Model the fold of this input.
Amino acid sequence: MSHDGPFYQRDRDWHSPAFTPGYKTSILRSPQRALLSIENTLSEMTGPVFGRDILGPRDNDLITNFGGTGEAIGQRLIVYGRVLDENGRGLPGVLVEFWQANAGGRYRHHKEGYRAALDPNFGGCGRAITDQDGGYHFRTIKPGAYPWPNRVNDWRPAHIHFSIFGEAFAQRLITQMYFEGDPMIWQCPIVGTIPSREAIETLVAALDRQATTHMDALAYKFDIVLRGRRQTMFENKLEGH
Amino acid sequence: MVQPLKRRKESPSQTAGPYVHIGTNPNWVEITGVWQGDLGLDLVAPEAKGERILVKGRVFDGADQPLTDALIEIWQADAAGLYNSPQDKRGQADPHFVGWGRQPTDARTGEFRFETLKPGRVPFPDGRLMAPHITVWVVARGINIGLHTRLYFGDEEKANAEDPVLLRIEHRARVKTLVAPRSEEQGLPCYTFDIHLQGPDETVFFDI
Ligand SMILES: [Fe+3]
Done:
């Protein structure tokens, strides 16, 4: 039984709608017309593949990949997990990119307006390619919460941004990871664009005390689920396939 | 109660935010030295077969202001209509053409720009040929889930008229939002694809 048919329809009620006025920037950036629904074509069922040759040895170590010799300041973390599809199959060879603020909550970016100090040894980006089981891991420091211009006193909970490719362009996804037990998750207008608590909880990484490294790093487990494909065994095969 | 269907739910999308380029184009935002060169800037190797073209455009918000903090990705077939992906089982695509590109919109003008190839035609599931097209994906601050659309070519009137996807658009006046007019720049055909997130010219976005 192979899952190589079209992708399951995306559940638009599970995802945030486009227009979410509590997140003010969405007001003028949200399409208002109905999306055009089309069945998957080869244009969506294919996607780019990245070879391991693009990776440097420290691409998945945000503690050291920016500083020349120094290490980033902050609570040291291992973040690990798997990239799966909706059928529960691990997706190998998938490029995962991540970026985050430093331990004080500040991004290394010219548009950043928060007063927290820059860390000279922290750039804030990393990437990995999943292994045979869809596994990935990286080392970083825990990002700080930060204020942002929305309502006057809105703060983002600590989070890491993720960009994931999958095997096909239909699976392309950008999302964010949050940390277990953080009360600020439930106060955030960007988190709040997601309609259900159940869906939000799938973005909260679990503290995993069994995966910590001795006198070094805490560990959080974060699995990412991409769209799955239908099995083709009962599908009518059309000519030209 | 009934037996449960054991399927997982897709991870909910979250906005790429204002600092997406730290993760996707770190060198462009002056985070240099982590890795050499940002991905997706060069699509075409000198040996690649096909007609060289430029694709450019801007992304406008509901107040007609161009987004200066967006990220655009494109995905397309090679000149023979094959995708450079293991998921395309029809044949071997041109190894000198990646087919995937990624560019930030310019921090001042909001313009994005790709040097690529004119793609060949790819079949729709029922076997009819689609018109040449490029898949375009837009993410930015304020966009909660990435927007999929397609660029079709202004000089492919005949193929566009029979394209199975364009034929699905009920409001025919909106077809033109997917068709990029052709001009010339640097001696190359240049197709301008402006994307409107809202308003009377709102681009047709896809649920695929
Ligand atoms: Fe952030």
About this structure: Residues 37-196 of chain B form a domain with the Protocatechuate 3,4-Dioxygenase, subunit A fold (CATH 2.60.130.10). Chain B has two helices and eleven strands.
